[in-house]
Amino acid sequence: MRKITAVERQREIFIRGAAGIRPVIPADPVLLAGKARLQMKPEAWAYIAGGAGQEQTMVANHSGFNRWKIIPRMLRDVSMRDISTTLLGHTLPAPLFLAPIGVLEMAHPSADRAVAAAAGSLGVPYVFSNQASFPMEETAAVMGNTPRFFQLYWSQSDDLVVSFLERAKACGCTGIVVTLDTTMLGWRARDIDFAALPFLKGMGIAQYTSDPVFQQIMETPDPVPQAKPQITLEAIRTLIQATRRHPGNFWTNLKTGAGLRAVRTFIRIYSRPNITWKDLPFLRKHTDLPIILKGVLHPDDARKALDYGVDAVYVSNHGGRQVDGALSAIEALPGIVEAIRQKVPVLIDSGFRGGADVFKALALGATAVGIGRPYCYALALDGQAGVADLLANWMADLELTMGLAGCKNLEEIRTCELASA
């Protein structure tokens, strides 16, 4: 695992620049997104970069950080700086992790495997997406001893949920991140306008097609007859894509219709909008891994999570992809921290674009911060190397922000004062 200081990271970039070599991954988050957009297909960009409705929540996620200002303190010895921390028994090089993002093959063919390898090279935890492009076992295999977690979407099949839990533990995941805010897809206008859903092409369902329980469900007749799609050239193309992505021989899959059945089965069972707090004990019964609830924005829900014995609370509005006009994650954070009162770790994602944002979240009581779309953009630009560069940049940015603010470690960040705008 390579570890360099922020000053060394800067020096490395500038020395390469003196030889005419500029970074592939822009440090400016706006330039990063813009460069990635040019690299991606329009439908892929719409899916990854888009949000719900008019995308007011996405705007709030960014502008919400303006509510707090860092107050740098002077004449403090910050010559020795340490951004390492602990999370659920793991020692981490920084208070960062990679949040789950599905269908990463839309950004780069190596998808989750490239992200996992980059995370493993720097010791940064990765939350495997439930909607991954590669099975969790393949992704875990390139991470070494770096901590990894599994994101769970609670499907219609409890047997499938149990199978996912068992597979997650078997491949070395050390926590289950239960996503609460996506029991149905939000109204994502960009995807609607393209009339495009990647899952219908067999994308992002590798956790399912690699699962023995899902394969059994595929053989069960659908209780609700599916409407026959209109036969068009695009429909045939979609069928071929779904068939090609299904495990096994293409011609056998085409003959048996396995790819199409997998897509239809996934669409039928992936969503479970009737999940409630009373279902949480089912998870505890079937796994001894830490349970992390993702999507908490109200203090009362945080307190209720404690009542149900969860191991961590994850503040998130799904990057603005679910409820248009929702509260930003960073604005929700202080109330959640107050409700938790340091009883369990508090994670957060949604809207983070650099070290100063991370600093503010830590000062407001967060334990660790999840990086979302930025690493996806880096993946689109330069695969594994791009994600590794982005992580190195964020760690350097956080370390420099910390030192220049007069703090030498995370404990000092957590006790520092922010100005309220």
How would you describe the overall organization of this protein?
The chain has 421 residues and is of the alpha/beta class. The chain folds into 2 domains: 311 residues, Alpha-Beta Barrel (TIM Barrel); 72 residues, no CATH class. Helix content is 46%, strand content 10%. The chain is built from 19 helices and 12 strands. The strands form 3 sheets. An 8-stranded parallel sheet has the order 4-11-10-9-8-7-6-5. Strands 1-12 form a two-stranded antiparallel sheet. Strands 2-3 form a two-stranded antiparallel sheet. Strand 2 and strand 3 form a beta hairpin. Helix 11 packs across helix 12 and helix 15 packs across helix 16. The longest helix has 32 residues. The two termini are 40 Å apart.
What is the multimeric organization of the chains shown? Answer: single chain
Strand content: 5-15%
Number of helices: 19
**Major sheet: order of its strands?**
4-11-10-9-8-7-6-5
